[in-house]
Amino acid sequence: MDVSEIxxxxxxxxxxxxxxxxxxxxxDPKAPKxxxxxxxxxxxxxxxxxxxxxxxRLRQAESEGKIAGDITIVPQANPIGAAQSHFGELxxxxxxxxxxxxxxDFPLISIADRAELVEDVDDYPAIxxxxxxxxxxxxxxxxxxxxxxxxxxxxxxxxxxAFWPEAADLAAALDMKAVLLSxxxxxxxxxxxxxxWKYQIPGExxxxxxxxxxxxxxxxxxxxxxxxxxxxDAGGLWRFLGARGIVSGAMAPAAAFAGPAVPLxxxxxxxxxxxxxxxxxxxxxxxxxxxxxxxxxxxxxxxxSGSIDLHAPQDGLILTRxxxxxxxRRGDLMKIACDNPSKASRKAGTLEN
Length: 353
What we know:
The chain has helices at residues 46-63, 79-82, 126-138, 168-173, 189-198, 227-243, and strands at residues 2-9, 16-24, 34-38, 71-74, 85-86, 89-90, 143-150, 152-153, 156-160, 178-182, 213-221, 261-263, 267-271, 276-280, 287-288, 293-298, 307-311, 316-321, 326-327, 332-337. It is α+β, with helices and mostly antiparallel strands. It has a nine-stranded mixed beta sheet, sandwiched between helices. Strands 8, 13, 15, 18 and 20 form a five-stranded antiparallel beta sheet that branches. Strands 17-16-14-19 form a four-stranded antiparallel beta sheet, with no helix packed on it. Helix 1 crosses helix 6 (227-243).
């Protein structure tokens, strides 16, 4: 395993950021190349724990000559966000300087222009230098996994329709409970990677990308940073790498993916109509029917008509739930994966900021 660091100078004198990069060199130049990163949202750490245990397996495999394809791993992809706290709370999702999501505003380029990402890179602010370095590394691979987590959540993934159903092997290996099929219309990291491949010839869009994969994996919730789960997920990812011919000696996934795979238009996002204390009646992983009571918002405690009941708009599987119990007006409470499109309008791209 080769360990190196990318140095990112800070935007003020005397500061810099160090981005550790772990590389395993494969013995077969024809095997797929893999790039995996975690904690782009700096407070989302299940992926960092997973990669810690995966690297144990990879070091052993390397010593036995069982790594076929090059593997690049960035276990903590956002040292800038990891250093940003406000009143003791980590602010790892939005950059305090630019107020932008760390997983947005990645450059949308053709793969032919990959080298330009790091040309004159020091002319950019630190956060843009970080994003350009990450995207440059990812575009040198065939398989790209961006490991995130949700709030309270099942295991699921955002996968561009251009990679489905080929990517069902990843969903099976990681025992995902659902897949959300995205349209690739945002500047999030995994969609920026897919954009570069789709527009390999500028102006000409490819809708199917065999042998490629760029995916956002949601490894349950923020509090699911646990050695048992991390080792289980590392084992799943190890089996995926084996099935794709990147490592040898890994058993194939035991079963095919059996969960729902639905377009983003089929995701119902339950939002609070008013602010207040939220009382949940249903939890993640439950299948609900249209009309079921999901939550009560206590808006004026102790007063007549001081609460609002929220009901399911259609049948579905509860994927996520907020961990907050005091919610703002229009705050997101739940995501529900459904068989039919939501009646709520949705802009192209990601579900949330």
